[in-house]
Amino acid sequence: MMILSNILNKQSLKRYGENRLNPTYKAFLRIFYFLTSLNNSEYNTLLKKVDFGKYFVEILRAQYHIISSVIHTGTENIHLIVNYAEESQIRLKTLERLLLLNDDSIKEEFIKTGIVHDLCNKYLKSYEQLDVSTYKLTFKFLPFRNFLPIRNEALAIVSMIAQHRVRF
Q1: Helix, strand, coil content of the chain in percent (nearest 5)
Q2: What's the confidence (pLDDT) of residue 41?
């Protein structure tokens, strides 16, 4: 919570990428991505024992909360924009690997966390926008200046769940 209070403080210049929590999330997601990409029964058993589905959802919720907090304070240009695309890709690729696992119990654990309810009732209804107009970009032209990061990612997750026909 200390990290979140630093982000919520508009005068704080502590960068999002320098917070201890963020690199930890990234490291766990990369490890989980690697283990799920192997789709090995022994590793799947390990993932089941450590409650991977539940922990993955906790990471998603925490990161979405931080993104929302950064947008509300108007500090996305110093906290978020540099790392957002990479972090989003890690989250989405890890979820895709989770949905491709041979072990259905990990998928069931993921669904039982209530994430689909949150996606439909909270994240898909989010109209919080990242404003990239003040960020110094190397591109001379961008087709957009504002976008809806939480909503777009929630839409991608719901699409993946439907595509892989996960039952809940």
Answers
A1: 70, 0, 30
A2: 92
| Alpha carbon distance 150, 137 (integer Å) | 22
User: Which pTM value belongs to this model?
Assistant: 0.75
Q: Which of 31-40, 56-65, 91-100, 123-132 has the lowest mean pLDDT?
A: 123-132
Give one word for 114, left, alpha or beta, with left for phi > 0 and alpha for psi -120 to 50: left
Closest residue by Cα to residue 81 from 138, 30, 119: 138
Backbone phi and psi for residue 2, each to the nearest 5 degrees, phi listed first: -65, -40
Q: Quote the tokens at residue 36.
A: 């799920």
Give backbone dihedrals phi and psi of 49, rounded to 5 degrees, phi first. Answer: -65, -30
Quote the mean pLDDT of the chain: 77
